[in-house]
Amino acid sequence: MQLNISKGAESNLIVSVLLQNEQCRDSAKNLIPPLTFNATPQEFDEGFFEQIKAPVKTVSGVMVDMEKFLKQMDEVKKQSAMEKEKEEKQKKEQETKDKKFKDGMAKADELEKEGKHREAWMKVPDITEFPEKADEIRKRKTELSDKFSAPSLFGSEQAQNV
Q1: Three-point CA angle 58, 59, 65, nearest 5°
Q2: How many degrees, rounded to 5, is the angle at CA 98 between CA 94 and CA 103?
Q3: Taking CA 4 as the corner, what is the angle to CA 16 and CA 31, rounded to the nearest 5 degrees?
Q4: Domain ranges, ordered by start, for the chain
Q5: CA–CA separation, 131 and 95 (whole Å)
Q6: Does pTM surpass 0.85?
Q7: How many Å apart are CA 100 and CA 106, to the nearest integer?
C-alpha cells in the first residue's frame, strides 16, 4: 500500500492511497485509480482506516482475481498446445497406419495379378493390426483363399507335370 500525504488548503490534509500488488502481472492493475481523501487531521484520526478498509479489500480482490485469470489463461494455452500436439501425433500415427494398410493391400493386388494367390493372401494385412478394417480384410482374404483352394479342372495334371 502506498500512502501519499500532502498539505491542502485551510489546514486540511490530502491523503492518497494506492494499493500495489507486484504478483499481479496484468497491466490493467495500473488503471485502478488511487483513493483520495481531503479532510482535517482530526477527521483522519477518527475514521480513516474504517473508510479505506472496504475499498482496499475490493481492489485487492480484483487484483487477485486478475492474477488467477492470467494463470488460468496460461494453463488453457498450455493445455491447448498439448491437445494440439496430441491430435497431431494421433493424426500422424493414423496416417502411418493407413499407409501401411494400403501398401499391404497394394502388394496383395500385385501378387494376385501375377497369379500368386497364396503369397497375396499372406500379404493382406492382419486383422489384429487393423481391427477397424476387419470386414474388408476378411473379404479380401476369402477372395484370395477361394482362388488358391478352389479345385482346378487341370489341377491334378499341373501337379503331375511339375
Answers
A1: 90
A2: 150
A3: 50
A4: 2-150
A5: 15
A6: no
A7: 10
